[in-house]
Each structure stands twice: as C-alpha cells, then as structure tokens.
Amino acid sequence: MSAPMATKRVWAIVARREFVERGRDRGFLISTAITLLVLVGVIVATSLLGGETRYRLGAVDDARQVAERSVQAAQLLDVDVELVTASDDAAAVAAVRDGRLDAAVIGGTEIVVRSEPPAELVGIVQAVSQRMRTEEALRGTGLSDDQIRAALDQAPLGIRALEPVDDRRRENSAVAFVGVLALYGQLFAYGYWVAAGVVEEKSSRVVEVLLATVRPSQLLRGKILGIGVLGLLQLLLIGVVGLIAAQTVGSLDFPSGAIATIGIVLVWFVFGFFFYAGLFAVAGSIVPRQEDLQSTMTPLTLLIVGSFLIGLNAIGNPSSTLATVASLLPPSAPLVMPSRIVLGETSLLGVLLSVAITVAATVALVPLATRIYSAAVLRPGRVRIRQALRASRG
Predict the structure, then answer these.
(1) This prediction's pTM
(2) Contacts of 40 (CB under 8 A, 6+ apart)
(3) I want to staple 179 with a disulfide (CB 3.0 to 4.6 A). Which of 9, 265, 266, 301 is the partner?
(4) What are 85's strand-pairing partners?
C-alpha cells in the first residue's frame, strides 16, 4: 500500500470513529431532537398565529342591510367576515359578551364590541354605514341613483413609494436571517466539539495511545473531517425538516429560493468549519483540562460572535462597506457572504473571490494548526503557542 493511500485510509478510520462516537452521543441526539421540535413548533405556531383572521359580525333585522354591505365590502378588501343574524338587540349583545361575535350592529346606529374593537372590521362597518347615510342624504336632494354613485365612487389617491418594499426581498431576508443564525450555531457548536474532543483525549492520555499508531496530522485531520461531516448532515437534516414542516402546514408562504438558500448555507458551513476547526483544535491542545478550555476559546468566541453580528447587520444593509469587506475576510465571510448572495447584493466574481480567499487562508492555516497541535498535545500542563511552535521546529 502506497504512503498516500495509507494516509487516506488512516484519515477515513479516524473520521469514521469521530463520526460514529459523536453521532451516538446522548447529548448530540437530545440536542438534535430538541432543535427539530423547536423548529417544527415555531413553524406551526407561526402558521396558527399568522393565519387569516375570520371575523363574525352580528346584526339585528333593522341593521341587516349595513351588515350585508359590510360583508360585501370586506370581500373586496380580501377580509373574511361572516354575517350572523341575531333575534334581537339583547341576543346580539349577549353573543358579543361571550365571544361568539366579534362585533354587532345595533339599530343601525352603533357597533357593540366586547372590549378592544377589531379595527379592521369596525373600520369597514363604519365606512359602509357612512356611505349609506350619505346616499340617503343625496337621494333626499332629488339626485338619481346613478348620479349618487358617480358622486361617491371616486378613485382613491394614488400612492408613490420613494423606496418601495420588494416582498420577495423581504422573504429572502427572513430566510437569510435563519441561515445566518443556523450557521452561527453550527460553527460554534462543532468548533467547540473539536476543541473539547482534543482536550478530552489529552487529559485522559488516550491521545498517547492513538499517536503510537497514527501521526498527529492524521489524527487531527481525521477528527476535523468526521466532526465536520456530522455537522453538515445535522444542518441538512434541520433544513429538510424545516421545508417539509412548512409545506405540510400549508399556510406558510415559503420563498421559492429556500432550497437554494439551504444549499448556500451548507456550502459556507463547510468553508467556515474547516477554517475555524484548526483554531479550535489548537485551543484544546494547549490546555490540560476541560475547565481551562473556556479561557483559550474566548478569542475565538469573540471572533465568531463579532462575525455573527456583522452578518445580522448585512441582512439589513448588504451593500454597505462593512458587509462588503467582511464578506471577503475568512473569519467573517461564512456568516456574511450567504446573506449577500441570497439578497442579490454581490456578483459572481465577488463570490468566487471570497471563496478563494477563505480556501487559501484555510490551506495556510491547517498546517500551522497541525504543527502546534502536534507539539502541544503530548506536553503536560498548559502550553504556550510560542513554546509549541519552537518545539515543532526542533
């Protein structure tokens, strides 16, 4: 077996071990289940709370004409209003009081509501009532019905928006927000897994046994590959379940580009994870215990959180100088560039340049991280990065 083939086989074995062990971890299974339940719950709740409102309007016989014309006007405005006839005023008031009616027209002179008037329904009824009374007043002057309609049916004022809102862009912004949030969570969680796995093996001295049969570079890169594939599959599972839940609920208008957005998020997770994974591995290799890991991870945590905040800002202002520059820098590109792609605020050249810079930085960073890891993971106690670099040269 040639050396390259042997190296690939070792990588595959280590990656498979990490994938299986982490995938079987009870904490991973529970967190995945909770994430999926929360996702489905949010989608269902959004559907139930954001669905079309149906109003029930009551009327006594002497106010039925106002109510009927209100229902007709509501249909023109795409508002769902059901007309319910009450036997008398007392019955209508009782129905409003116990919640069976949202409002009732009494005697053609007043609208009865339980507490807070439903503004949309009340506005329609009041407009219709005002028009009917105006018609009666004009009819008393001797005008014909055609003349009355000509006088009242005037075109409304036109609306000219200086900065019109694109509904499709609004939907894409919502999807971009979810994508950035998911990327932030996955990059941080799986980066921590790399660091925690390294320090766990170091503190338990398991790494000494492993390094007796494999090289440090093979162990580290296999670990990163296995955990990265697991994170990618979990992210894909979350995206697929979210799409299925949204389509099943049916009342959600899911953007047509959502599938493409999921693909973009998955691709940038790969770029971001492999960039950060080496740094997290270094953070784990230079400390002797899990309790010390938080302090070495603080700079990485701040870097990811800062990139996440820039990513959120880029959703609202994707063409800003900050978003443009951040989408080209390897630490922040995975959390900024997806939004700019989804919102159509970058060119193909910009995307390719960002990918090239991120890949080049990762290619340069992984060997350096491997050197530090190789020198620090077998040294007892806390190791300074400079010490590890000097040791790796020796």
Answers:
(1) 0.69
(2) 241, 242, 245
(3) 265
(4) 59
